[in-house]
Fold these 3 entries.
Entry 1:
Amino acid sequence: MARQLFSALLLLGGLVLGAGYIFDDGRDAVNVNRSIQVKGVFLLVDEESMLARLQRMSAANANREDFLAEVRLMLANEPYVLSSSVRYSWPDEVIIEISEVTPVAVVNQRILLLENCRTVDVDPAGLHARIMAFNTADGKLNESQCRRIVNVLPMLGSIPARHIKMLANGDYILDVEGSQLVVGENDIVNSAEKIRRMASLIRMNRINARYIDMRYISGAAIRRVSES
């Protein structure tokens, strides 16, 4: 009977080792071939690159708890990750859920502006079309300029302008269907409906105007493109 029990234990040990498990100091079993699942809606995070990095980390670290700690540290240092959760699912899966930071604009074609005026240097190619693009007069982005952009964004939500230039005097130039709408600093906040109507007229009537000055109380000045 004892011999049969010993043989059964040997067989069970062989099956466990054959499945790729290692016992670390008697506490828990770790599968060196563990599965990794990354969940989230990704706009900025390169999911494929991150998964490949996680798989390399997993292959180099068989201890489950050490691996999970390493993953949490990595995610804490990722600039595009706002929050994350890392959990182990028996018998051999690690599930990672990620929430990204919220981008609000691209400034000077190279700086990604996040909520709360945080910035990240980024290649804006391929970013979601809903992210508005700003250019500043001096090509820089200081705290004051950052606040101007964040404050004006809610007023631009329904205006079909994707490229906006901030002038040093506080005015803005909105690129709408290839036409430049010039609006004052106060107008962009107080006359959003007027801007929307003008943008709609440009699209509907295919106005070939290079410059439309909106800084008038009751109308706008239009400089049409020369027919020649």
Note: DSSP finds six helices and 14 strands in the chain.
Entry 2:
Amino acid sequence: MGELEPPDSHHLRAAVGWLELGLPDEARRELTLLNPALRRHPDVLSLEWSMLARQHSWEQALVVALKLLHCDRTRATGWIHRSFALHELKRTSEAREALLPAVSLFPQDGTIPYNLACYACQLGRLDEARAWLRQAIKLDGRDTVLEQARHDTDLLPMKDELDRL
């Protein structure tokens, strides 16, 4: 699908702004102003996923992530969102397996190895988690990744060793 055209692009940007302000109801209202045919546009689905994630509506977020993957498999976000929702639904092994193919599809996306590190850590696969974190560091930079990792509860089993990676 191509880029959204005005006025729909304006409504989408407004919805993003409302969500960034922490006002998901206003964001959802803005989305109702979109042409109904565009509800399956990848940009709209990504925003819808973000709104559901903020509300911790993981079952619905998974459905939206699957729609996003179905309409555009070339975006890393669909792969990442699907696995994140699976993980939040306590289906971490499935989340890991679902995200692994994305490593070769999106080799420059540091979020993918970072999330795989989180999943591996939660599955007790600490050597694997270390390897994924090292890859994320190569892609996104040491300071950026370690700052995020220090506050990530999924990586608590590795907290004492993060600075040595």
Note: The chain has a mean pLDDT of 95.
Entry 3:
Amino acid sequence: MKRIMSSLIEDRSLRDKVYVFKDRKEAGRLLAQKLSGYKDVNGIVLGIPSGGVPVAAEIAKAIGLPLDVIIVRKIQLPDNTEAGFGAVGPDGEVSLNTNLVSQLHLTEKEVKRQIQITVDTIKRRNELFREGRQFPLLKDKVVIIVDDGLASGYTMLSAVDFIKRHKPEKVVVAVPTAPKGTVDLILPQVDEIVCLNVRSGFTFAVADAYEKWYDLEDEEVISILRSFRIG
């Protein structure tokens, strides 16, 4: 993959603000405006289920690229499903936040158990969302990876690592919101990050960027993917 200087595209008027998007669809449409330069290129938009799919669908529609999913998942803490200490990629590759594992005093048994739960979940979600379709070819393509927001960034890093092994022309991360520290973590690993709402501060929650926030059911994700393929 050709390497160029990584760049961040943001909306400075949204810096450090909360509740800046009506919902995921609006966020996707606003991201698409910043991605208009990729209209009709040899590329693909990959949404991270579940919340990234409605965002990705709006982008793909607006810039005329195919939509697919990339199944990556954070390794959840045993007692907190919102927080994670790493992530697992589509091919089972594990990325651990070893500092956090040490801080939390997790045992080796606990770590292995949570990793296995995550691997099993990825397998189930692949069967559910991909419906038997092969993962698309990415070689020499512009790949735009989309989620509804970043927190620690480990899930996105797993997706980036997996995609780079498929030798794309360019890797672009597009998210509505993220903390500045996570943007700084991911930026050197990709060609471009488009993040409209960059926030600093001690606390961060993806949901705080949205007026309307809810957890998507699997059926809604499947419906979006099917309607897009039919369309």
Note: The chain has seven helices and nine strands.
